[in-house]
Automatic annotation (TrEMBL):
InterPro entries: Cyt_c-like_dom (IPR009056), Cyt_c-like_dom_sf (IPR036909), Cyt_c_oxidase_monohaem-su/FixO (IPR003468). This is Cbb3-type cytochrome c oxidase subunit II. It comes from Aromatoleum evansii (Azoarcus evansii). The keyword Disulfide bond does not apply. Gene3D superfamilies: Cytochrome c-like domain. It holds the Pfam family FixO. Signal peptide: none annotated. Keywords: Heme, Iron, Membrane, Metal-binding, Transmembrane, Transmembrane helix. The chain crosses the membrane at residues 7-28. Residues 44-184 form the Cytochrome c domain. It comes from the Bacteria.
Length: 201
């Protein structure tokens, strides 16, 4: 019985230390971290698109956290500067991701700022990146004989366009693209300093 008590006590102490180190201390350190200068709150459409991003499991294949050049060549891959805590001020839950089956999306809104490209890529990734292993999301679109007023028609390369019809983006697809285009953290981490006036002699 004495050994069981020691084992349970040791496990509880270990768990408490791990929780304090990995949860409590980071929370206390970052809870008052302000948003990075230049970061804007998400719009309603972007928030809806973020929910589509979560629902479709994009976070399982894409990260949103470029690393420091000393840890990985993410800057050479064109993924942008290393992320900082303030970049995620408006994110709840955070979608940092751990897998990179696809590229990091921290700055996809800057790398691919075309809504038409984003929509076409969601409908059929291989129309834009032939060797892509990303799944297509045709159920986020509708194929119609002709577009109606107000429809967002997806302009696809001719060999991927449906015969005798047009591809129309649903609201969910448009919201998802709004969210992706909002992923643009190309602004500097620090606010620019006010110009210092030259010292008088």
């Amino acid at each position: 019985m004495e050994n069981e008590v020691k084992l349970i006590s040791g496990a509880m102490v270990t768990l408490a230390i791990a929780t304090a180190s990995l949860v409590v201390l980071p929370y206390l350190q970052l809870r008052h971290e302000p948003p990075t200068p230049g970061l804007k709150p998400y719009t309603d459409a972007q928030l809806r698109g973020r929910q589509v991003y979560i629902r479709e499991g994009c976070v399982y294949c894409h990260s949103q956290q470029p690393r420091d050049p000393s840890q990985a060549p993410d800057d050479k891959r064109g993924w942008g500067r290393p992320s900082v805590a303030g970049d995620y001020y408006y994110d709840s839950p955070h979608l940092l991701g751990t897998m990179r089956t696809g590229p990091d999306l921290f700055n996809i809104g800057a790398r691919q700022p075309s809504a038409d490209w984003q929509l076409g890529h969601l409908y059929q990734p291989r129309a834009y990146t032939p060797d892509s292993i990303m799944p297509a999301y045709p159920y986020l679109f509708e194929v119609r004989k002709q577009a109606e007023p107000g429809d967002k028609v997806v302009a696809l390369p001719p060999r991927f366009a449906p015969a005798g019809g047009v591809v129309v983006a649903t609201q969910a697809a448009q919201d998802l693209v709004s969210y992706l285009l909002a992923l643009d953290r190309t602004f500097p981490v620090l606010a620019p300093l006010a110009d210092a006036s030259p010292a008088s002699n």
